[in-house]
Amino acid sequence: MNNARAKWITGMLSIWLWGCLLATGAARGDAPVSVDFLPQWSPQSQFAGYYVADAKGFYERRGLTVNVLRGGPDRPAGVQLSNRRVTFTTLFLTEGIALRDQGVPLVNIGQIVQRSALMLVALKKSGIRSPDDLDGRRVSVWDDFRLQPLAFFRQNHLSVSLVPQGYTPNLFLMGGVDAASAMWYNEYHVILNSGIDADELSTFLLADYGFNFPEDGIYCLEETLHRDPEAVRAFVQGSIEGWRYTFDHPEEAMAIVMACVDAANLPTNRVHQRWMLARMGDIICPGGNCAEMGRLNEANYLFVARQLRDNGIIQAIPDYQEFYDPRHATP
Amino acid sequence: MTRATRHPKRRGLALRLALFILASTTLIFLAAFGYSHYHSRRLVLKNVSAVAMDRAASVVLQIEIKLRSVEAIPRVVSRYLENRTVTDELVLPLMHDLVAGSPEIFGAAAAFEPHAFAPDQRFYAPYFYHAGSEEVTFAQLGNETYNYFLWDWYLIPKELNRPVWSEPYFDEGGGGILMTTYSHPFYERSEEGRLFRGVVTADISLENLVADIGAISLYETGYAFLISNRGAFLSHPDKTLIMRESIFSMAEARMLPELRIVGKAMIQGGSGFAAMTCSHTRRRSLLAYAPVTAAGWSVGVVIPEHELYADIRTLNRTVLAIAVAGLTLLLLVVVAISRSITRPLQHLVGATAEIAKGNLDVQLPVVRTG
To answer: How many domains does chain B have?
Structure first.
């Protein structure tokens, strides 16, 4: 009797356990995993691929619910990722390497932007037409992106007077500096849309002078990679699909980006966002070739890392294999 | 057969005479009409230019007066802070009372260079502002995520070494109102020269400033707008353009290169008058513009051409109707007169032909003289 009862209890227990296991399994299989994604700047076409992936359900289809957060200067993506406040961020390659060197266990899981958009801009009427003309001039540089211009000045043996650059090109527009830093997809067009014609400007795209630092890449922490590699792959694959869809359907992508921009009440416009989207195409798929999207070329990585080390920004070059995980971007 | 050829010839003579007189009269009329039309358009344009420029100038004046009155506060405070040992006791009550006593400003700050206030303090920027009703709220600006040294209101006057009105911006803390900040740099002066120590600022809401512009209307759909020194719309009847679009982005979006040229003249501080296609109404319009010197902005007044010339068009229609009636009457009169001249001649020609055939009984027309 006792034995039979024990058997019955054991049987019921095992059924209940089975049920629980099945339920957990179902939960893992059906209910989407929810993650936070923080782009490294305010909503704009620079992140079109992610907004499009979210709007078109490319993440959802891979079992991932992505909460796309609003980025901006008051929410530095690197800090938010380090503090585990978000799961995924985009970062410039230089920032990713620097954080890794500082001990943040982050991993590049997809290098989206292959070509640097950083440039220096000057007015031709100030007499600046070639790099040599920058000698002795006042040039504003962003603290976070000073490495490329500094290397460019050294290469050309220029002694320039550095001025910190803020969040707008207004100091340049008001004549406060002879040359300013600009992103080809952003500030350069802001300058054009402030009434300065393209033929009135001298431009120095730093990638053209041998300083091609790949820019936006997707990052997460090592622990995320170990805990949930499926989610990581889903996010990277969804994002790549988002970018491909964006370049194939630019008008639809523009509508999605403008909805994000309007929701954030940002002082920008469609003409500017359209320009930015076209330039993102140029730097993500240089020469119209999108095959490299998501891949971090080792030679490019080592070049950037050496520049960072030689300028004292990092102590040692993080191991390429540890820094970059190529599994998630490959189809 | 012969009669058939003779008949149109007879008609032709009268008609040709009538047409000749009519054509000459019409030409003379058209010349006079054309001149009068051209001249009256010029007169209207001249008068409207004056009206539009007056409107632009009065708006500019109103804005300038408000801006200049706000400029006084940072100017005086920055002068006061120079070469003084600044302490909390000195600066806090001063800033508080200035804001409390100046309802026209939204807030004011005294922002110092790194470690300029105290050696161990990187940021020191007490900020007082009107939060809602009468009360004045205090905030200490500057922290890890708000590094004010890099913001335009601090950086630009520092680098330009002169007071500056900032490019307007939406203040997120203040409920998304459009604001602009006047920043006056202050220095530590010594015999070797001067050393930059910080800026004193005053923020104002643009809402009151631009309300006067929004109220302007000329003719049916004429309006006024205000752009910043980068061409961004600060005031426009289409509110969705404000701060989002600039005169240059509109020129690019609507493919209006002439608008870009006007925009450049405007932000370079010019004043004048231009004819262009309005990006807002898509109609040919006249634009009068004048600079707001204090802040480097520009006011534009737009009047659609078709409204401007509406009176002239009505007048033209009346004149043309009179002309058509007059010319028709003239045609009838000329035809009647020429018929009365040519009819006896035709009879004579007929009689002569009969005589030539040998019919001498034919009756000749009666000759009337004098």
So the answer is: 2
Residue B244, chain A, CB below 8 Å: the answer is yes
Q: Which of B146, B160, B249 sits opposite A269 (nearest CB)?
A: B249
Statement to judge: residues B90 and B203 lie in one domain: yes
- Give the mean pLDDT of B130-150: 85
Does residue B227 contact residue B216 with C-beta atoms inside 8 Å? no
Residues B297 and B314 in one domain: yes
Q: What is the pLDDT of residue B5?
A: 45
Q: What is the pLDDT of residues A193-242, one digit of tens each?
A: 999 999 999 999 999 999 999 999 999 999 999 999 999 999 999 999 99
Residues A43-60 pLDDT 10s: 999 999 999 999 999 999
Domain, as residue range, for B311: 1-69+216-336
Residues of B in contact with A76 (CB under 8 A): 145
Partners of residue A73 in chain B, C-beta under 8 Å = 145
Establish if B204 belongs to a structural domain: yes
The shortest C-alpha distance from B294 to chain A (Å) reads 14
Q: Cβ A194–B246 below 8 Å, yes or no?
A: yes
Report, as an integer, the average pLDDT of B328-357. Answer: 83
- Cβ contacts from A onto B, under 8 A: 80
B188 shares its domain with B233: no
- For chain A, say whether B227 makes contact (Cβ under 8 Å): no
Instruction: State how far residue A32 is from chain B, nearest Cα, in angstroms.
Output: 33
Question: Considering the domain A31-115+214-323 in this protein, what is its CATH number?
Answer: 3.40.190.10
Count CA atoms closer than 13 A to B299's CA, side-chain side. 28
B252 touching chain A per CB within 8 A: yes
Estimate the share of chain B in helix, then strand, then coil, as percent rounded to the nearest 5. 50, 20, 25
Computed over every residue of chain B, the mean pLDDT equals 86
The answer to whether B267 faces chain A, any CB pair under 8 Å, is: yes
A1 — pLDDT class (breaks 50, 70, 90): very low
Closest CA to B67 of B174, B259, B210, B196: B210
CATH number, domain of B54, equals 3.30.450.20
- From the CA of A271, how many Å to the nearest CA of chain B? 6
Question: Which residue has better confidence, A307 or B217?
Answer: A307
Q: Which CATH superfamily is domain A118-209 in?
A: Periplasmic binding protein-like II (3.40.190.10)
In angstroms, the separation between the Cα of residue B92 and the nearest Cα of chain A is 26
The closest of B143, B164, B221 to A168, measured between CA atoms, is B164
Predicted model pTM: 0.83
Please state, as a whole number, how many other Cβ atoms lie within 10 Å of the Cβ of residue A132.
Answer: 10
Domain with CATH 3.40.190.10 in chain A: 31-115+214-323, 118-209
- Distance between CA atoms of residues B224 and B212, nearest Å: 10
